[in-house]
Amino acid sequence: MSDDAILILGDEQYRFPVREGTEGERAIDIQDLRARTGYVTLDPGYANTGSCRSAITFIDGEQGILRYRGIPIEQFEREPNFVEAAWLLIFGHLPNPEEYKTFSENLTACANLDESMKHHFEGFPRSAPPMAILSAMINALSCFHPEYFELEDKDHFRCAAAGLISKIRTIAAYAYRHSIGQPYIYPNPALRYVPNFLHMMFSQPYAEHECDPIVRDAINLVLLLHADHEQNCSTSTVRMVGSSQANLFASCAAGVCALWGPLHGGANVAVLQMLEQIHQGRISPEEYVRLAKDRDSKVRLMGFGHRVYKNFDPRARMLGKVAERLLPTLGVRDPLLDIARRLEEIALEDPYFVDRQLYPNVDFYSGIIMRAVGIPTNMFTVMFAIGRLPGWIAHWWEQSQTQGSKIARPRQLYVGPGFTDHVPKDERM
Ligand code: CMC
Predict the structure, then answer these.
(1) Is-catalytic flag, 217?
(2) CA angle, 381 then 348 then 229, to 5°
(3) Domain residue spans in the chain?
(4) Catalytic site residue 421?
(5) Which of 138, 147, 304, 382 lies at 20 to 30 Å from 342 by C-alpha?
(6) 312: pLDDT confidence band, cut at 50, 70 and 90?
(7) Whole-model pTM?
(8) Residue tagged active-site, from 120, 178, 226, 306
(9) What is the number of H-type helices and E-type strands within the chain?
(10) CATH of domain 4-50
(11) Cα distances (Å, whole numbers) of residue 365 to 153, 317, 328
């Protein structure tokens, strides 16, 4: 009782219970606010709104902490394994050897697309943005797999999840092959998740792509670090669409669309464009930072800042280290890495960024890594989507299993015209 929050509205006092999360986070439970007071809350951008209880990912933005199911993200660095992290996020614990083996086999078994899906790819212009293709094709998957419309139990859900996690990489690779006018390469059942993806991206009918273990580990880490980030824009979208009981595929297709925007997943492309611009000498790093600080310019330092992190994004720290290691090992000398370091240096010493607690985020270095291994820039956000998919699936499932889960339907504060009569067409000025 003493922990209740008290709201005073005129002469009335209302008490609302305070709920506490496992890490001591506190939330005022206002579920019956409108019913009791007639008021709603106003929180554009939902920066102060907890939309659900979730047991998947914990972030402490002030301290730069990110944990999947309680495990600090840094502990995945030594042997990065995206498939293992996907299982962990979705099913709540690290897979035992039997679970891992079965899940890997499911992924292998599901990698092919229905042959007639190829016609869909053909219908897109070569220049189609891969994120548009990805979203459309994930939605199209539901037409080919109506057996997953209604998920009866956990086993059924596991098959749907494995199917989607496996097929997204085939769709992504086919979208790329279509864009460059090259034949689709079928998945190879002998290969693991990441090498199989790179095989479909880069092999030729007459020449097999060989995946360097260093590249395999780097891409595993990139995907793993993107795998979940609690209630971000795309995950909230998946939850919102899923709250209407839309199927898993439709909900995740919507997540891809949300991720596409430059303030979210699309930032990894925008970072590269920014670095290229500086590299081509069109603007200096100092001038770019000056513009990013100028409110009238609309320019932002891409890959900097985060809604939740008010300290270093731990993912950026880890990816920065990977970039430093990977490029020399591959014999890649990328001037964009030097430019990124220079921008970071300038920004971290500038009171504008310091005062606003703007630090590099996950997108700042991921593009440099992907570029070094030959992933083209227009596929960067697709890579983010492949990585984020387990998170979307985990949240969709968590929500669907939550007793009393409701359709997501926020309120608003109406600020439009008052009662206005309709004017017949011929009487209008
Ligand atoms: N460059 C310059 N100024 C910035 C930046 C930036 N990157 N980010 C925030 N600010 C300023 C902003 O102008 C505002 O200043 P003021 O207080 O004077 O009005 C202040 O910092 C707070 O910014 P905000 O836009 O209110 O913060 P937000 O929490 O709504 O936005 C963000 C978070 C990530 C959208 C924003 O920082 C941003 O646009 N960053 C660049 C895009 C980017 O890198 N996005 C990837 C995010 S991480 C991956 C993901 O989760 O998708």
Answers:
(1) no
(2) 35
(3) 4-50, 72-264+379-401, 266-373
(4) no
(5) 382
(6) confident
(7) 0.94
(8) 306
(9) 17, 7
(10) 2.20.28
(11) 40, 9, 15
